Amino acid sequence: MFGTVEAGRAYSTVHEGAVYLHMGRSYHVLDLDLDGRRALLEPFDGDYFTQAKREIMTYITRMHDQRQTHGVTLSFGEVVYAETVLGYQRKSLRDHEVIDFQTLELPTVEFDTRALWYELDELIAAEPFPPDQLLGSLHALEHGQIAVLPLIAMCDRWDIGGMSTNLHPQTGGPTIFIYDGHPGGVGITRRGYDEFDRLVGDARRLIGECPCRSGCPSCVQSPKCGNLNEPLSKPGALELLARLQAPRGSLLGR
User: Fold this and answer.
1) CA 126 to CA 225: how far, in whole Å?
2) Percentage of the chain lying above the pLDDT 90 cut
3) Which end of the chain is more exposed for a tag (fewer CB within 10 A), N or C?
4) To 10 degrees, what angle do helices 234-245 and 131-153 make?
């Protein structure tokens, strides 16, 4: 044995067929023994890497705080995080082109944690917003805020996660969740809730100052995205951030 992986991350990182990086070396996962809680690996020198595709949902179980700010309803509380790994894609190391997609049959993982979430229905309804860009815009905004939160909360990016949806069953509308990636929560998203002004401003600078046109790993793409960075709309994220900082502003169509 040369390493351990938290149970909550095992299915997405050491599933059968995964390329696993440990201490700067790559390994190919030959088998994941669910009952024995072991993964069998071999050294790997291939020309591809893998990314897991996950189906994610968060369920609100208890609200601790809530306030109106930046034109949205911002909340903090306890949630149940549920994740099902559906499969994985292999991508070329040279140009990151997708080679293929392999399906997996793995159980759903759930754990209780804490999260901040905000409802954007009024912000979006304030001015016309293209419906076909909404989900990609929410997704890109979520990634941007996850990228800057570690600088606010002094944590690692892998300690937090997120989920965005244009219709959450409990809030009834477009909602972005950012949650602690550890069971029970460790205070990361509480800091994000308290410093939401900075979370919005830092995300706008990160995305707005990036020279790319449609989104890249430096701004809205995430190496740990369960949806394989699809869909993403960088212009839409900037529009939402403009409305969060100045609700009457509109960038779409300019």
Assistant:
1) 30
2) 82
3) N
4) 70
